[in-house]
Amino acid sequence: MDFIKITEVTEKFGVSSRTLRYYEQVGLLKSERPSFEKYRYYDCENINRLQQILVLRKMQIPIRDILRIYEYQDMETLVQSFVNRMESIDSEINTLSQLKSYVNDFMKAMNEHGITQISALPLLYEKVEEELLSAPKQDLTMEKLNTLSERLAKPLNMDIVALPPMLVITSIKTDNGRSEIESFWDWLSANQIPFGKPGSRTLFEYQSSEDIVLMQKLPEQIANMKGADSLSEECPFECREFSGGLFAVSSAYADEDLRALQHRMLQGFDDNPGYEIDFLHSGSPRHETLIEAVFSPENNRERINLYLPVRQRKPNFTDYPEFETTENTSLDEIEKANTILREYTVDFHKITPVYHPHFQVLENGEAEFIAWISQRKLDTNVAVRLPFRVDIEFFAEEKSEEYLWGTTEGSLWFSHGSCTYTINAENYADNALKQHAIAFQQPVLENEYSYPKIGDIPHDRYNRLTWIVGEKHFAVVLNSQVRFCGVNFPYMNMNLNLQAPQSIIIGTNGQGKKLFRSIKVSQLKTAPKTNTTQGALQMNVKQSNNTLPNLRQIVHGEYGQNYWFNGCAAYVMECLGEQDYDYWLFAGLTGENFVQVYSKDHFRGDGVMDYRMSEPGNHTVVEEIFTKIGYASTFVPLVQILKNKELYIQSLISYIDRSIPVILNDYGKNPHNRFGFGVLVGYEDYGKTLLYMCGGGKEPDRISAADLLTDDYQNETGHCHGWLFIGEKQENRALGEICRERILSLPQMLGYENRHYCFGVKAFRIWADQIDGGYFERVKIGEFNNWDMHTVYVCCLATNSGGCKGFLEKALELNPDMTFINDVIALYAKTGRYWNNDNGTDLEALGGGFNVTLDVLQDEFMRKRIAHKLRDFADCMDQVVTVIERFNAEK
Predict the structure, then answer these.
(1) Which of 408, 563, 596, 848 is geometrically suited to a Cys-Cys bond with 592, CB 3.0 to 4.6 A?
(2) Residue 391: C-alpha distances to residues 55, 200, 343, 479, 501 (Å)
């Protein structure tokens, strides 16, 4: 027989797992869970039945009728269900027809009586009603109109919400007890108390006797500084504590019949199994009906919420199916399925005895407890919510254990909320009547169960007792032996995350002494509850625009952050929650804060990443950077994006909607800037306009997707333009190891050269040779580009001279054995002096720094001095290489 996994069923038929569980609970479906599987499966018969149920539900056949259809299994029942549905439809049509007739009569009456003003409508109704009562249509009265209106009203949708307790001020004057709304509004304004925003649940109105009362929550700073009593002394209006609690909420427009809505809400709880209106013993509700203004989808109509006080009904456990007991379920299996989220060890000194039992903490750290009667107990002062686990290591003294009268003598029990869990229960003085039972109340539903002869406890020895009130199993374990285990309890299918934490209370009964060696209370992990099948709402949640919430400046040049890729990479990591991976870490990993660059042919950018990305097909270098920190990444070249623009724009939209930016190395008709690396941070008009940030910009710029992704793209230089998508974290790498690898591999970068450019030592020497050899003598004044030809290299050496220090110090802190790092720091500091603090012989003083001019570079004497200084930089880098290689050799 073929079986289909429940997850496959939900995906195939578009039905949620919660709905499937409901169908099983009412007896329409049945699933099976093989012993070796964690998932439930449906056979072909149940799959066929599910398809039938879904068809019937789409025709709005009620569940109670579907149950009848399968109960009687005959065509007559099925046909009768369809007949009932058609009669319901006919009734609705008939109601609409009657209402149509009534509206038509009113229109005729308006014409006959010359009604032209809406204010005359009530008078018209009285006139028409008199005429209709004397006519054949005597049933068309206001009462009939109300009935028709109620029958045609849409099903009432209500939510149950919990309003928190709050300190409020009302419009009721303390001197006369009357509500004075206008003066109350003025008082709030004069005292700069902000009015509650629509939907914020801070400003309500309600009707008390004949008065309309406004109730405003006081701001936290005022509520914390002053209580209700002190405020009442200063304020002419009533201040009090609003107790909050559960309320049923429904929405309407303010121009609709609110009294009718309130009536329908009250009626909606007549047969509600979970909640009821919260009436006091006097017969009045716990609080008057609250009204709150909310934002309205229609500008010219005010929208409001109505709040009715409600309380939970005690669940009727007869409405729920029985659970299943299991045999041969191992403790290891139970513990794996009910994971501990947090464990609390009960401090015996912090236990609170209740009703004066005998309780003392002994010198050996154990606790001694005699209750005599079950009302005398111990509050552990440890509170947990469902599901939970309790572990008790205890000693029961046999000589003091006598069963004289009560059924709980000799027991050991604990309570959580209204439910009690007992081992060694139901023991009468008569030996024949001793049950040694395990007894408990099911969580939430509170129905009682007792299992005799499995709860006896050994005496005069220490026992280890465990109760697991879990989401997957309900189990009792004594000395590693599973005494009881049940699954599929009704409470396990409820949303346990909504249950409040309750304190664990320990108890026993009779004169028997119990010694506790340890008590542990554990909060168990719960699975999140979802209400939809995967992908069910994809079409409904497509946004036309979205922008990342945490926009910020990508780099700060004033702090020496001069390389844009590092700022972009750090921003992406910040969005992914990685705080250690900042700009300075990436500047070290890329080498941009260590390595001098120099181009032999044309301008290639500002730093190492620009240079490496200038080589055709070399885009893997950006992916390698993220591999170093354990992240997957994919660089998509622009030529590939242009072949399927819509696909990659949708991919970008998906990333933005998940709050992850995308790095780009740009080419396009950008009207704002000629930028290299930047980050795409948003989109508008379904991706037709893209938002990006680069450099020191504080706000995102906009560019059309057509201008960014131009069809006439021609990559004449072979530069690697494209987008970089950061994927999942694949490896947790220690920060110290990441820094160590970077520093030990620096010699390779500091000696790198190809036919187009070079790094480190060679960069300084070739740069010096070109200046010394008279390269600039051939450059005309109009051709000289200060930045591209010289100053960009000065910026590089100046940045590196101090920018690498933070990375080096962090690496040394995480790798104390790398003491040579102090020598490297000193060498880079020396380059800083060579640049701008060398007793008048530094690069700036020689005219070869940021202040360079073409005249200086063409002057033979001055350019030789500049070239000589650049060779000093090269010597420093040579020494850095030597220091690191010596350490590598020693290792």
Answers:
(1) 563
(2) 50, 43, 10, 11, 18
